[in-house]
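Possible race condition, two jobs.
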Amino acid sequence: MPRPMHFELHADDPARAQAFYQRLLGWTFHKWDAGSWDYWLITTGPKEEPGINGGLMRRMGARPASGQPVNAYVCTVGVPNLDAALATATANGGDLALPKAAIPGIGYLAYIHDPEGNLLGLMQEDTSAK
């Protein structure tokens, strides 16, 4: 069965987006020579751990109006402490899109907007969540 193998973030300000994700999740960025595109490869963790890596590119076209969704594909990232991650997100230019909620038997989930308006899910695993 096909599985996700790459994700892509679009940003009006790539440096701002990189700083946000570096501070929030510890991701690293490497400029990729993609011809006339501004493109950075994103490493989200060691190869031996489950997960996918992605890319960041300068947004092409206009950003949707306030209140309109920026993208229809949402990645959710596992974090060890959801409350701490939400605090880090808001301290670095993100905002809360959907507050922390329990997913019974799975954990706690919240959604944020990054400074570029992209939606991101943050999940703390906790099988005792009710």
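Job #2 (started ~2 s after job #1):
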Amino acid sequence: MQWLRFLPVTLMALVSFSPVVLGQDATVTKEEPKPATAAKKAEKPKFVRVTKDDKKKPLALQTAVVKYKSDSKESEGVEVTLIGAVHIAEKAYYEDLNAMFKGYDALLYEMVAPPDAVPKPNERGSSPISSVQVGMKDMLELSFQLDEVDYSAGNFVHADMTPEEMFESMNRRKESVFKMLLRSVGSGLAMQGAGQANDLDVLSAMVSDDRARNLKRAMAEQFEKMDGQMAALQGDDGRSTLITERNAKAFQVLSEQIKAGKKKIGIFYGAGHLEDMNERLIAEFSMQPIETKWMDAWDLK
């Protein structure tokens, strides 16, 4: 049963990878807006959290929707919203996202593919990790992002690398998906060694009558520590193709959309990308977060 100690961190790593990259071979709560001056002094923002009731029982895994604005003349009237995502979630979560997306002049999205490629529901990539992700969807009784999000919407704008750009960057940086996955798993095992994960929870979930819910609860605790997992993917220079280089491409597209006159812009990316994007919006666009909403991605009740 030693393989069980690897399960939660391995699954977390797999879910964190963009399903489109590896395929290449709800409820909403609102927080009160904070003044920009207060945001500058705030602690590092979170983009994934687990909510619990008064008895500390988990209620939901939530992702953040954070709105940013700037007082600078260059960005006057522009509103950018970071919309965090997990790639396997409740069907209602994606339904709420599809409704939200209609309100943006431009919705920038992640997809390592040619810019004109539009994923179709139930069309799968052939990579082993993509197949595992789809299998996890069934095991956790959740839905897969590519099956539920309407990528054909007229305001959708591709804001990611092409496969050629990504592989060129990874070769230049001497990276591989397998190596990054090992780093992520290694980071997760370090958390377990520090007492931050419970093997017994995973074992109990696997043999319980309500396996899907109990596995989701065990994995949700790992998702809340996503920052450490994502940091493990970075190279010695603090950068990686998977996170920082793809984010740089997304923000190149963001600049183009602002210059084109778009005022209300959403950026829909995996939640693990958003810490770096938050820093870029503050440093490069002089923007500050003014409002945060939380969406239920997984029902843990």
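Residues 1-10, 20-27, 32-42, 186-197 have pLDDT under 50 and may be disordered.
Logs attached separately.
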